[in-house]
């Protein structure tokens, strides 16, 4: 026997469905004793039976849209088994739809561009709303907000859907109103009814022509799945009464078509022939409804729409494919993360789970896949690239379906990174210090600066040049003394260095690569000129010619160790090379006179005796401490004469102590006086100017 119940969906757990004991005319106690069992045809136990009362109750949430989709009637079947005797009863529970889903538009707003001289009665399709409910609870009607120009026409589709169209009832005048703002409301038949709205913005375009007209409002065709590419589906025909470009018609698929449909069908824009360009799979769709628009070539264009219903006949088929829509095998290393390297189209001719394809790449590579559409992926860079680290990649794109076992296909994309001048040349040292002995040979290599650039080819070709360093004496232009080889960085001297003129020189060496724009770096080179002992001591006092001697007079009664004179010498060298020592090399009587080693003071060491000569010739040698040492000799003649002892000794001592020094002192005093005078005059002038 079979018993049928009807209940609405979304009942709470424990809700009453029916009394099986009452409907079977059986005592409840008898059902309990007969070992009552309830068996369900589905995987889920939506119902349970209380054996003590015979009542069937709801045990799980029931969603009619999830169970039966758009089917107008929805049933759940139970089997009731009892023993002693064995009997089976079939219970059929009809799930009634309730209005638990409102109609939904694909978007909240749509924009239309309609020409000013569009013909009255012109139709403009609007994206329909979708309502998963059935019967009276599904989408029933559309309402258009009040306006002066448009009316609403609801077109019934072959699948039972309702296709809203705006119908132009009153001529547009762009000069009067350039934009129209309408609201389209979709409403179901539930109680209470539910609805949703979409805002329609209409831009009126200035034109003066007629829209194309199809010879039929809709077309039909029948194809077998896996029809060869290029198979003719249907040939459309539209006419336009205008002449010239305004009557020249171009056909195209409407924007209302899905991306998947656009991959399957293509239309010849001139002949109107719709042909197969992709795989037809009965498991994916049994019917395709193609929205086609015909546009003329006027300015602005006019258009008309029609529908083509294509029914697919099922045949058996299989397996995943990877198609490179766009691919560049070279990529600049400075490409930002997210840069598209390749566009990949994947498809699987199977249906259901076996027809679903997933793509992936190795997570160890700096690339990732982004799913653009249902069957299209883009290969993107996921991180920054560095050619100096890795210059070449083999990216394996794996496409696998969800079958059991899964089928897969692997495609290797070779990608070569193009070098970018993104690395500044780096010197081996931040600065260089060079010790150069003066009197160096011309052209000798003073130092070799070296830099490296990890870039390649032209970007790594380095060129060196000398720049004048900030703070260097303006008169010391380094390019005057030095030159650098532009490729190997060898710095050579153009002239010998003279320590007495230049002791220190600093300059910048700049390296630039061959990139565009070139990248540069600098290093500072310090050149220290080392003194050489190339200057002999020069005697400033006493002054005498090359072949003459200087005479000094002393009294016979001079008291030792009286100062006779002082030999003063200077050396243009520096350091140890300028350390001077004075030596008495020859004398009439070596024991009578002495010369101080460091000061050069000539003194008498004992009292004069009558036996001593009246004229003494002394040869004093001034020697520096260089290696080898250089020296200068001076000859002194000491005359012993009877004069006033004090006067003679004083005058000679004064001569010895002074020598050439008073002249230097006088120069210093005069310079100090002049500087002070100029400063006072300047300050007085400044004060007067301020007053």
Your description of this structure?
This protein has 691 residues and is mainly beta. The protein has 6 domains: 3-96, Immunoglobulin-like (Sandwich), CATH 2.60.40; 109-205, Immunoglobulin-like (Sandwich), CATH 2.60.40; 213-313, Immunoglobulin-like (Sandwich), CATH 2.60.40.60; 321-418, Immunoglobulin-like (Sandwich); 426-530, Immunoglobulin-like (Sandwich); 538-640, Immunoglobulin-like, CATH 2.60.40.60. Helix content is 10%, strand content 43%. The chain contains 7 helices and 49 strands. The protein is elongated. 25% of the residues are buried. Keywords: Calcium, Cell adhesion, Cell membrane, Glycoprotein, Membrane, Repeat, Signal, Transmembrane, Transmembrane helix. The chain crosses the membrane at residues 664-688. One of its GO terms (biological process) is homophilic cell adhesion via plasma membrane adhesion molecules.
